[in-house]
From TrEMBL:
<keyword id="KW-0547">Nucleotide-binding</keyword>
<keyword id="KW-0808">Transferase</keyword>
<protein>
    <recommendedName>
        <fullName>histidine kinase</fullName>
        <ecNumber>2.7.13.3</ecNumber>
    </recommendedName>
</protein>
<dbReference type="GO" id="GO:0005524">
    <property type="term" value="F:ATP binding"/>
</dbReference>
<keyword id="KW-0472">Membrane</keyword>
<dbReference type="GO" id="GO:0000155">
    <property type="term" value="F:phosphorelay sensor kinase activity"/>
</dbReference>
<keyword id="KW-0067">ATP-binding</keyword>
<keyword id="KW-1133">Transmembrane helix</keyword>
<keyword id="KW-0813">Transport</keyword>
<feature type="domain" description="Histidine kinase">
    <location>
        <begin position="137"/>
        <end position="351"/>
    </location>
</feature>
<dbReference type="InterPro" id="IPR004358">
    <property type="entry name" value="Sig_transdc_His_kin-like_C"/>
</dbReference>
<dbReference type="InterPro" id="IPR036097">
    <property type="entry name" value="HisK_dim/P_sf"/>
</dbReference>
<dbReference type="InterPro" id="IPR050351">
    <property type="entry name" value="BphY/WalK/GraS-like"/>
</dbReference>
<dbReference type="GO" id="GO:0005886">
    <property type="term" value="C:plasma membrane"/>
</dbReference>
<dbReference type="InterPro" id="IPR036890">
    <property type="entry name" value="HATPase_C_sf"/>
</dbReference>
<keyword id="KW-1003">Cell membrane</keyword>
<dbReference type="Pfam" id="PF00512">
    <property type="entry name" value="HisKA"/>
</dbReference>
Length: 356
């Protein structure tokens, strides 16, 4: 393009430079998107495909040459896929396409465009299933020998043993009990991971639930802590009684393990804007801010030595997380190092009913 001389020519040169820079940015941007491990589809508000990268072609079996300009409905008439893409829900969703498991998310990009992001998680899901099944099978196989060993140890209590032998026997029995608790927790976690469906809505008396959890905590503490039930709302929780008891008891036992002797643990409940809050608050060692996102991971320990000394399996908070997921609830953790931690179960309002 020939540029005129003079003032008008200078303006044209400026415009051309801006256009060139914009084109260079667009090329770099598209090159970056092409290199992403996730699929990206740029669509107009009426679902017309404007552009897509190679990973989106693979995940959705589209063609960047022939499908540009077409509406996604005509390119991929899969009912489940279209329902989830066009639902208006911007949360992560999972679909199955031609035997592959694909995570999708549609994001609004201003008033003119939508972005569809995809990720093939087939191998990841297979690995997770294999790990879960392996752990469950090994745990089941460990139950029988542990039961046999425990039985012989109980028989040995009647034998004429000296003080040193009795000490060894107690140590063996303690370790078998610990292994049994670990196996039970692994089986519970495997079951919860397999069953992600919403929990049943059976009425659970909150007073009974929190009082029983405090009693269990006092048994674990053996009188070394003050465990107080402060305030209980007169309501029923609508959920699975075994799972909810496990969740609350795990929080109380966790507080016992991470609170020095003489410390206080307060179990209470109250309502906020989200729903019912069940609080288990201690004045123990606390959790560092950077560790809080990881405490619900399996086998993660804030203080490894302390948890082992007090018999923790490292699975309690992971179990709590999965139980709450099945109850559409969440776990909120407020903590300060050296001052203590407040674990809060927040249940939605439709999981609570007042006792008349």
């Amino acid at each position: 393009m020939k540029v005129r001389d003079g003032k008008e020519g200078k303006e044209e040169k400026k415009i051309l430079k801006k256009v060139e820079k914009a084109e260079e940015k667009e090329v770099r941007f598209k090159q970056t998107l092409r290199a992403l491990p996730d699929g990206v589809v740029l669509m107009s508000q009426n679902w017309e495909i404007q552009w897509l990268n190679p990973m989106a072609e693979r995940d959705l079996q589209l063609d960047a040459v022939t499908d540009i300009g077409k509406k996604i409905h005509t390119c991929y008439p899969n009912g489940e896929f279209l329902n989830k893409v066009t639902s208006g829900d911007e949360t992560l969703q999972t679909i199955t396409l031609e035997g592959r498991i694909i995570e999708i998310r549609v994001i609004s990009a201003g008033s003119k465009y939508r972005i569809l992001v995809t990720r093939d998680v087939t191998e990841q899901k297979r690995s997770e299933d294999f790990r879960r099944d392996f752990v469950a099978n090994v745990s089941h196989e460990l139950r029988t020998p542990l039961t046999v060993i425990k039985g012989f140890l109980e028989l040995a209590e009647d034998w004429p043993l000296n003080s040193q032998q009795l000490k060894h026997l107690d140590l063996m029995y303690e370790q078998v009990e610990r292994m049994g608790a670990l196996v039970n927790d692994l089986l519970t976690l495997s079951r919860l991971e397999r069953d992600s469906a919403p929990a049943a809505k059976e009425p659970i008396d909150l007073t009974v639930l929190l009082t029983d959890a405090a009693v269990d905590g006092r048994f674990i503490s053996q009188g070394h802590h003050s465990i107080v039930v402060d305030h209980i709302e007169k309501v029923n929780i609508l959920g699975d009684i075994i799972e909810m008891k496990s969740a609350v008891t795990n929080l109380v036992s966790n507080a016992v393990r991470y609170t020095p002797q003489g410390g206080t643990i307060v179990v209470s409940s109250f309502f906020n804007d989200e729903g019912l809050v069940i609080s288990v608050k201690d004045n123990g060692i606390g959790i560092a801010a950077e560790a809080i996102p990881r405490v619900t991971e399996r086998f993660y320990r804030v203080d490894k030595s302390r948890s082992r000394e007090t018999g923790g399996t490292g699975l309690g908070l992971a179990i709590v997380k999965h139980v709450l997921f099945r109850h559409q609830a969440r776990l909120k953790i407020l903590s300060e190092l050296g001052k203590g931690t407040d674990f809060q179960i927040i249940l939605p309002k439709d999981r609570v009913e007042k006792i008349v």
